[in-house]
Amino acid sequence: MTDTVLTTLVDGVLMLTLNRPEKLNSFNEEMHLALRAGIERAHSDTSVRAVLLTGSGRGFCAGQDLGDRDPRKGGPAPDLGHTLDTFYNPTLRLIRNLQKPVVCAVNGVAAGAGANLAFACDIVLAAKSAKFIQAFAKIGLVPDAGGTWSLARILGEPRAKALALTAEPLMAEKAADWGLIWKAVEDDALMAEAEALAAQLASGPTVGLGLTKHLIQAAATNSLDEQLDLERDCQRKAGRSRDYAEGVTAFLEKRKPEFVGE
Ligand code: T3D
Questions:
Q1: Which residues have C-beta within 8 Å of that of residue 155, sequence separation ≥ 6?
Q2: Domain extent for 130
Q3: Ligand 1 pocket: which of 18, 24, 87 to mutate (most atoms <8 Å of CB)?
Q4: Are 80 and 46 part of one and the same domain?
């Protein structure tokens, strides 16, 4: 049987490639579990220092596999709240809570939960030909996988509502202009650029990078006072890391630091 998520670990970069290209990498249960296992590995395996998420074939991810939701097959309506609790939400939380950077290379169309999966990652690069679609409105659902949270927070209500209510495709360059993603790059340069970025992060001071991610996410709900306290606590931890000592030593010795991720 074909792996629904291809996994490689090279020089600290755990690359996870969604791999159901004939269905534009839409989610079935097997792919859900495989992606979750990949992110869980990133949590527990200290040799993983950054994650790179992408898709195989011409799409990134078309959200839920609607073939698995075919009402014509009969039976009671599925409890989609249960499927979110069981499959989507744990993975989204694992990505956000991972104390390591997650780069997403959106190689083609990202629709429904596929778009919102990308927005949950830390740095998103997209091929210029890629588009993001809040496809839910076309089938009578609401945006999920954190989409209403990301869109409202990043774009504000007017653009978030227009995208979600119309399901109009948003091209990669406009998504970058609007601040939804880091950048749009030429299609044939996407993977090289994303891999170089993930490699750079994987050779960085992992403790400090993980704490930085945590701080920026926490800022969304903290008051300034709370955030100042959290910065103090995180800086205390970062200051005790081996990589901080190496960073300062390397600066003083006028050489490139060799971070070990501790
Ligand atoms: O259910 C729950 O658990 C709740 C959670 C829901 C989360 C969600 O994500 S709901 C939203 C589900 N996704 C969609 O509604 C998107 C459906 N797909 C599309 O609208 C279009 O395929 C795209 C706009 C993404 C791409 O269009 P296009 O023209 O480039 O490609 P295509 O021809 O439509 O698709 C290519 C193949 O992929 C095609 O198969 P075929 O005809 O060649 O055998 C198509 O059926 C298949 N495919 C694409 N998306 C899905 C899919 N098959 C199953 N499920 C899909 N989501």
A1: 163, 178, 179, 180
A2: 5-202
A3: 24
A4: yes
* 192 lies in the same domain as 211: no
* Model confidence pLDDT, tens digit, residues 76-131: 899 999 999 999 999 999 999 999 999 999 999 999 999 999 999 999 999 999 99
What residues flank ligand 1, with Cβ below 6 Å?
A: 23-24, 26, 62-67, 69, 80, 83, 109, 111-113, 133, 135-136, 139, 141, 144
Mean pLDDT for the chain overall: 97
What's the ipTM? 0.99
Q: Quick one: 67 and 192 in the same domain?
A: yes
Summarised one tens digit per residue, pLDDT across range 174-187 is: 999 999 999 999 99
> For residue 9, how far is the Cα from the chain centroid?
17
The reply to whether 55 and 181 lie within a common domain is yes
Q: Whose CA is nearest to atom 30 of ligand 1?
A: 109
Q: Give Cα separations from 7 to 13, 15, 32, 62, 185 (angstroms).
A: 10, 6, 14, 20, 24
- Residue nearest atom 55 in ligand 1 by C-alpha distance: 65
